[in-house]
Amino acid sequence: MSAWPAQVSQHWFAIALGDKIANKPIAFTLLDRPIVLARFDDAQVVAYEDRCPHREAPLSAGCVVGNSIQCPYHGWRFDASGALVEIPGLQDPEFLPPVRASTLQVREHDGIVWVRRIGDVDARLPGVALTQSSSGRRFLWSTVWQANIVDALENVLDATHTHFVHSGLVRARADRQPTIATCQTSDDGFIVDYTGTSRQSGLIYRLFESSRNLERAHFSAPGSVQFEYVYRNGSNARITLHFTPESRERTRLFVAFHIRGRWAPAWAIRMFVWPFLRQVSRQDARMLALQAANRARFPDRRDAIGPLDIVRRRLEAIWNPSATDGDSVARTSQQTRLML
Questions:
Q1: Rg (alpha carbons) of the chain, rounded to whole number
Q2: Across the chain, which distance is largest between two alpha carbons, in Å?
Q3: 144 partner at 20 to 30 Å CA-CA among 14, 241, 278, 312?
Q4: How far does Cα 273 stand from its chain's mean position?
């Protein structure tokens, strides 16, 4: 298996919901590397490679002691910086060896814990993660898709599959409207604007939405997507998705829903809207699992790129740059006419 692109490791990735991290260590995987998260007594969330540098026992099987994590094998304890602070049975602490547990950078924002393996401490989170405050959030959810990160990202950014995979729920096959999709590079990724349609033809729109002024998909590298809907009554809704690759075949997904200027209490969203959105996620997960299984059956085949596949090359330029070879399409503005 080839290595992940070097520049990807410098980015922040959503790894867990903040309210799921307590003082019991929990194991996760990021870019094929096992890691462990825990919350110390001072409420700080810490992240380490999931191994004790002494005899390689998993720290996720250990425990939190105050503001340190303790290995389950010999009890070695490490602080938030990874420094060794205690070896049980060692009488003179001056003889502590200069051993460290490998740590990751951690940030907690809007209910999500983010980690990064390497890079500049001052680097920002993905732009779409910073656009909304927790006060406007109506729900936050996480699941896992059996899919490659590029396939998962393309799936949510691809409007043309919705007539089939989500037929009647998001869009109806027989009710299409002329649309112009304009894709252009942004500071941290790209933006796709859809013009010419003020509504969608599916059940979700008819039940819960109203006429739109704007429909926009904003991608922040390397794995965050935000759908922005601005309505003619002045309200707006944003669905933000963060994708984190655990491996080449498994991707963790975080979904946040923010709304402003519209009557939509959290209980109403969870009771009435969320079941429909969750069904959309299940349908996508099923199709992506079928796609992944069939890719395994035909490992030597290459995908065809059609005229409506407006984001694939841009995503490949980030996650598989050797395949794109600097394709200029990934850096230019595109305008595509289609029927949505």
A1: 22
A2: 78
A3: 312
A4: 21
Q: In whole angstroms, give the CA distance from residue 17 to residue 180.
A: 36
Provide CB contacts within 8 A for 245, sequence distance 6+: 4, 30, 31, 148, 149, 223, 251, 252
Residues pairing with 236 in the sheet: 230, 260
Query: Exposed (0-12), middle (13-18) or buried (19+): which is 203, by Cβ within 10 Å?
Result: middle
Virtual torsion, Cα 302, 307, 309, 312, nearest 10 deg: 60
pLDDT above 50 for 1: no
Q: Which of 320, 255, 283, 222 is nearest to 110 (CA)?
A: 255
In angstroms, the CA 9 to CA 269 distance is 35
Give residue-wise pLDDT tens across range 180-203. Answer: 999 999 999 999 999 998 899 999
Amino acid at 202: G
Fold for domain 6-116? Rieske Iron-sulfur Protein (2.102.10)
What are the boundaries of each domain within the chain? 6-116, 127-339
Task: Please say whether the beta carbons of 237 and 218 come within 8 A.
Answer: no
Per-residue model confidence as pLDDT tens digits over 322-331:
776 555 555 5
Q: Which residues contact 31 (CB under 8 A, 6 or more apart)?
A: 4, 8, 9, 13, 117, 245, 246
Domain 127-339: top CATH class: alpha beta
pLDDT of residue 333: 84
